[in-house]
């Protein structure tokens, strides 16, 4: 299965990576254009450039740039002209953002909006179109302009709920986006364009805000997620952004992590650097080809100014402090850019996947008489499955049922899935018959509506006789689920035991009682009941887990690493999908990237808060060589890899 590694390109067609920062000058934040200080801007840009950041995302604060209908403020335009010139003088670029009415916990309207709907009021949309076309025409030929964004998080700015306008339909949003992207193109601009909405559509969130990523994909040149997770588990926290990037393999478009970051008010500087390091490297390994941190500086001098007066933590998202001094986050970005340079990362690609996580179409399809929890359950279980797969060093792809499940993987993982369509199940049975291993774990759902597995022909598919009772859930009474292996399986020996923490609602904390009827029992639970079974079919096999292990882990704080990674590693070994490079320690994630000239580089990413030493398992005859002094002198052969807390080491692998 081919995984997304799409990149933006230079005008000459060379692949391009963006390493940038969302930019407001410390002189004014959103009001910087009223208080524009060229000397401060120049200083701020130089600091970014000296730390490897060559791009900014800049914002045309809408109330200032368009004070009246059909009117652009000439002073603001001239100041932005100067801003562009200063980028060009430093060899930097910027991405102008047009409709900036939301920022950092505050919405601001141009005074002439008068409550009109952003997307459906035709005269108001016409004003937006005029504004985008006119500003694009002014700057389309400037060498400092790298791309365009229609908005900043406009789903929040539109604020339809509190305005009493009602929900937003996808057709209206898509028509609005087409109008504005057409305005950019009609002005003669050739740079890449995207929406700036945060990529929060149903395809990545399970919640439909009207911004359907599938519908917008033909209009944009890249997807731009904004990711600020709040988690209960450190490993999940580090991998949320990566999983979003995987989910955005839609339409073959590059993925630019358009916003990520943190406020220094909520984290120590050391832990802030750990977070930046994790996000930068794990999203690179998940297909991201651009990173734009939020944001360039702190705003202590603006504490009396909205939004900072009422959202004071928003003052301290900067990668420099209020005096322009670099924080450790900025130094981490610089170290990341050095890795990109040493690996020539613009010409790297991800190897094809031999294993895939199947994402049910119930995540994004609005099937009748289903409930929102059906969608979010798909998301949370798939995300936890991604964590376990990465702990097992599996370079998994994301196989969306809505796109049709591809046929070129050896292993398919269907994690804690209540619902798949009938054709989806038929496809999985066909893949198993053809030689693949298909794994599915039981999940009754989080709510009582139509509770139970929507799995047609469950018994025949998995070679069992289910012992379910209508309308009742078989509750997991124990605090732990013990899976005792009855035979050797993919590196797990007979007699070995995996222990999972039980969790869930009164509906979902349940198991599937079965008796084997053609399937072999691979493992039993602590009560001797079948917990893992395999039915061989054709050239392949179907494996049933009778407990929702991914769902239970997804609901459990501070759980990772948990034993699902061993289960996935065993499944991969049995299916012939074992990773080429691995570390037999789930606290270290290994992943390989391929250069177009044939070289290979291996990333080792620690999820441990203390130093540790990894002992990689390599293909026969292969060796690892250090890239830099981070793991020895350049070119040194590495037999072990020393990793600092939450550290990353990259090495070249030679045959």
Describe what you observe in this structure.
Helix content is 28%, strand content 20%. The longest helix is centred in the middle third of the chain and has 20 residues. It starts with 7 loop residues before the first strand and ends with a strand.
Chart the SSEs and their pairings.
Elements: E1 8-9, E2 15-16, E3 18-22, H1 38-50, E4 55-61, H2 62-65, H3 74-89, E5 93-100, H4 122-139, E6 148-151, H5 154-158, H6 170-186, E7 193-194, H7 202-205, H8 213-216, H9 234-247, E8 255-257, H10 269-285, E9 288-293, H11 328-343, E10 348-349, E11 355-359, H12 372-391, E12 397-400, E13 411-414, H13 422-433, E14 437-441, H14 458-462, E15 464-466, E16 480-485, E17 497-501, E18 514-516, E19 520-524, E20 530-537, E21 540-545, H15 549-554, H16 564-575, E22 588-595, E23 600-606, E24 612-614, E25 623-626, E26 637-638, E27 641-643, E28 648-654
Parallel strand pairs: 3-4, 3-9, 4-5, 5-6, 6-7, 8-9, 11-12, 11-13, 13-14, 14-21
Antiparallel strand pairs: 1-2, 10-22, 15-18, 16-17, 16-19, 19-20, 20-21, 22-23, 23-28, 24-27, 25-26, 25-28
Helix pairs in contact: 1-3, 4-6, 9-10, 9-12, 10-11, 12-16
